[in-house]
């Protein structure tokens, strides 16, 4: 499903500007977070003694209101910054998983083609060997041995290609498994953070 979503033309157009958008929003959220932190420190540092609070309670209420608002902004900007980073990581992992699945399917097709070609060449080699063994001429034997050597080299070459393709397929399988593990860990961490966020709310 995600692979189909990533193949939408609109997504490919947006993906060109994705890094710029991400960095812009990160900078904006960091600025908001630092501003909220500064406001919290500013209003937390204001000490109103009891006499002043009794004389002018509206000033005290106003300071408390500003402090509450700055704390609210601090929590909102902090959680937004964190969740934006989690979203970025999730999208990155989904993209890697989609690419890994595509390359995995391509490698499987390549391995199947190489296996079929190797079987065909081996069957042809056996048929040629049977045909050559029936003819007893020494010259024909020499040419048959040369052809046999050539065919053996070809079969060895195909076996090496098949081994290389199998190694690439195993590597792709390992990468897909690693990305799936990372995705599972990220999902657990995200659920834990959402529970923590709900508890804090």
TrEMBL record:
InterPro entries: BAP29/BAP31 (IPR008417), BAP29/BAP31_N (IPR040463), Bap31/Bap29_C (IPR041672). Keywords: Apoptosis, Coiled coil, Endoplasmic reticulum, ER-Golgi transport, Membrane, Protein transport, Transmembrane, Transmembrane helix, Transport. Residues 130-152, 164-183 are annotated as: Disordered. It holds the Pfam family Bap31_Bap29_C. Coiled coil: none annotated. It comes from the Eukaryota. The keyword Protein transport applies. It is a multi-pass membrane protein. PANTHER family: B-CELL RECEPTOR-ASSOCIATED PROTEIN 29, BCR-ASSOCIATED PROTEIN, BAP. This is Endoplasmic reticulum transmembrane protein. It comes from Heliornis fulica. The gene is Bcap29.
